[in-house]
Amino acid sequence: MPFENRIYNFAPGPATLPEEVLQTASKDILLWQGIGAGVMEISHRSSAFMNCYQEALQNLIDLMKIPPNYKVLFLQGGGIGQNAAIPMNLMGLAKAGPQADFVVSGVWTQKSIAEAAKYGQVRVAATSKEEHFYCVPKRDSWDLSPDSAYVHICENETVGGVEFSSTPDVGGVPLVADISSNILSREIDVSRYGVLFAGAQKNIGPAGVTIVIVRDDLIGHALPITPTIWDWKIQAANDSMINTPATFAIYMAGEVFKWLKKEGGVAQMEKMSAQKSQLLYSVLDQSSLYEPRVHKDSRSRMNVTFYLRDESLFDRFLKESSEAGMIGLKGHKSVGGMRASLYNAMPLAGVECLAQFMREFERRA
Of the residues 32, 71, 101, 178, which is catalytic? Predict the structure, then answer.
C-alpha cells in the first residue's frame, strides 16, 4: 500500500525515491534475508552483501548496456570527489604535460575546472557564460586540443536546467561526462565515453555512493600524488572495497536498479522523462507569468527551471505549492527562481499536479 501523507518531492537531490523501493527497504533495515539483522548492520565482506553488490553491479551493466571493456566502480565522495579523482587518474595521459579541455555549461563544470586546475592545465574549450548559461555551447564553437588528456562535460547542469541533447563527438580524445542528474533517464552508447560518473542521490538512491564507469585502457595512469582511495586501478582490483563502502547506499541503488528493470528499463524512463518535462514546458511556454530562460534546444528533462515575471509572488508560490503537497521547488541560491526536478522516481501524477497548480496559481495571481 502507498505510504500515507507523502508529498510530491521536486527537490534536486537528495531526491524522491520509488515508494516500492522504500517499502522494501523499511523491512530490510530491521531484518534482511532472514539473517536476523538489518541490511545496514551486515559486513561488506559477508556473502550476503557481496551477493547484493554483484547483483547491483550486473543490473546496472544490463540497464546501461555497459561493454565488457569497462569497469564499474561504486565509490564515495560524490561528484566533487571525482572532480579531483578524474584529473589525478587521467592528466598523465596528456601528450605534452598534464592538460584537459572543459566545455563549460554551468555551475558544475565551473567547479570541475577549479578542482582540475590543481593537477594540470585546464583549457576552456567552449563556454556559454555570455549567454548566462542558458544553453549548451554550440559544437562548432568548441576549440579542442589533440594534446589534452580528455574532454570534460556535464551532461545535465542541475542548477541551471541545461542538458546536452546528444553525445558530442570529440574525436580520439576520451570524453568524460558527469551524468549525476540524468543517469538512467535515457539510452546512451557507453562506448562513446572514456569515463562516466554520477552521484546516486538524484536518479538512483540516497547520498553516499558514486558510480564511476571507466574504460579499461584509462585505468592505471594515476599521478604519483593520487591517494589510494582515488586510484581507479586499486579500486577496480578490490571490488571498490579498499575501505568500507557505503553499504546501505549500494543496497538501495541495487533495489532501484531492480525497480527500473521491472518498470521497463531505460527506454521506458526516457519515454516518461520526455512526457513529464514536456508537460511542464507546455505550461511555461503558454504562460504570461512564468518565464523559462533556458534555450529550447538545451532544456533539461530532469531539472525544469523557470522564473516569475512578478517576483513579488515568489514566496506566495512556494507557500501555496507546499500547502498543496509539493516541496523542493525553490531554485538554487546562486540563480534564484524555481526548479522542478523530474527524476525517474517522480510519478507522472506528481507532474500533473504541479502543472495544474501552476495554471491555477497564474489564474489567481
Answer: 178
Whether 129 is a known active-site residue: answer no
The residues facing 102 across adjacent strands are 124, 152
CB 63 within 8 A of CB 266: yes
Cα distance between residue 45 and residue 48, in whole Å: 8
Alpha carbons 282 and 267: distance in angstroms, whole number: 23
Domains, the chain, with CATH or none = 25-262 (3.40.640.10), 265-364 (3.90.1150.10)
Largest CA distance in the chain: 62
Residue 217 CB-density burial (10 A; 0-12 exposed, 13-18 middle, 19+ buried): exposed
The one catalytic residue in 28, 101, 108, 230 is 108
pTM exceeding the 0.85 threshold for the entire prediction:
yes
In this predicted model, what pLDDT tens digit does every residue of 70-119 receive, in sequence order?
A: 999 999 999 999 999 999 999 999 988 999 999 999 999 999 999 999 99
Q: Rounded to an integer, what distance in angstroms lies between the CA atom of residue 338 and that of residue 20?
A: 28
Let me know if 65 is a catalytic residue: no
